Amino acid sequence: MIFLEPSPCLLTVNSLRAAHSLRRSAGLAAVCCLLGVSACQSGDVGKNTSSNTGAAGTAAQPGAAVAPATPAVKPPPPPLPGALPAPEDVAAPPATATKTPSGLAYVVLQPGTGTDHPAPPDSVKVHYTGWTKDGRMFDSSVARKQPAQFGVTQVIKGWTEGLQLMTTGEKARFWIPAELAYGETPKRPGAPAGQLTFDVELLEITKPPPPPEVPKDVAAPPASAKKTASGLRYRVLTPGKGKVHPKAENSVKVHYSGWTTDGKMFDSSVARGRPIDFKLTQVIKGWTEGLQLMVEGEKTRFWIPAELAYGTNPAPGQPAGMLVFDVELLGIQ
Fold first, then answer.
1. Which helix (H) or strand (E) holds 260?
2. Does residue 208 contact residue 191 with C-beta atoms inside 8 Å?
3. Which of 2, 8, 145, 325 is 20–30 Å from 259 (CA)?
4. Are residues 329 and 295 in contact, defined by beta-carbon separation less than 8 angstroms?
């Protein structure tokens, strides 16, 4: 099952790390071998195996010739439960494989029944199995009997490229070089190293909904907008049917879109077609305050001043200044 990280445009760095830790500790890392957001397996990495003792366990004497300690070789991880046998050509693509300029190699195992190819904004549903070149299976939706769904651009580079070559119903085998996967020495603990081989069946392509229109009052809140003591401005677009307001300790499910005051949309769960869940303590201050003013079913526009968002000089990739959000509260947990 895939567990995508909520948008970093909302969550703080600490809350992202906490969410990542929770998911790993719960053993929910199954498909994350594909995603660029999580490790796929847990394990001890980088342990210091050097020692200053001799073979008998006593300290080396001054002046004695001591052979340098030999680093312990970590044994390979045990096979995953229900591991599927590797294809005979797992180690290297055959001469009949098609190779792209990036180095991705593939063969079509089963022609597709569709005509459309996935595009970068699309989401897909797939079945897949992945092996390292020595034939060890490290991940499989087939073994789990549960297809995976994710955005075309949310996976490793080799998958993003390969999926766009396929049509619905097609089954293909990909040999993904290390530079299009996790590299020869992955930075993520547990990620598979080197060339990876995948059998992928494309089950479904989902086109994203059209992006929401830029609000006419995006540049500044109208005079009719309410203002809180903190400086947060808001107006209700659609009244809710609920009566309960979320509290700071609650988790919520929302749909949202965010713009800078020049009308540039920087993030949208609506455009992705997937609402997000999070705790109110995990988001920017303007969201923590604003969501507690809402009830289920309500849709509200917020004008969040810089001091309640990321400031006027935020970290790279974060929007600066006042931000405008349309938020629909779907549920309170």
1. strand 251-260
2. no
3. 2
4. yes
**Cβ distance 186 to 180 under 8 Å?**
no
Tokens 């009719």 locate to: 224
pLDDT at 15 over 50: no
Q: In this structure, are strands 299-304 and 265-268 parallel, antiparallel, or unpaired?
A: unpaired
Q: Just list the catalytic residues.
A: 256, 266-267, 284, 310, 325
The model's pTM is: 0.60
Given a cut of 90, whether residue 319 has pLDDT beyond it is yes
Three-state DSSP class for residue 162: helix
Residue of 154, 263, 178 whose CA lies nearest to 219: 263
As a dihedral over the C-alpha atoms of residue 224, residue 228, residue 233, residue 235, rounded to 10 degrees, the angle is: -50
Q: Is the pLDDT of residue 272 over 60?
A: yes
* pLDDT of res. 71: 58
What tokens were used for 171? 């089954």
Spell out the domains of the chain, with CATH numbers in brackets. Answer: 13-42+79-206 (3.10.50.40), 226-332 (3.10.50.40)
**Residue 310 CB partners (closer than 8 Å, separation 6+):** 284, 318, 319, 320, 323
C-alpha separations of 94 from 84, 171, 174, 177, 184 in Å: 21, 17, 11, 14, 22
Degrees to nearest 5, angle at CA 250 with 246 and 251? 105
User: How many Å apart are CA 65 and CA 236, to the nearest integer?
Assistant: 79
> What's the token pair of residue 286?
């303007």
What lies within 8 Å, CB to CB, of 136 at 6+ separation is 76, 77, 79, 83, 86
Tell me which amino acid residue 40 is: C
Residue among 275, 293, 282 nearest 235 (CA): 293
Instruction: Pull the structure tokens for residue 98.
Output: 């098609």
Neighbour tally for 40: CB within 10 Å = 22
Q: What is the mean pLDDT of residues 174-189?
A: 94
Specify the amino acid at residue 238: T
Distance in angstroms (rounded) separating the CA atoms of residues 264 and 65: 68
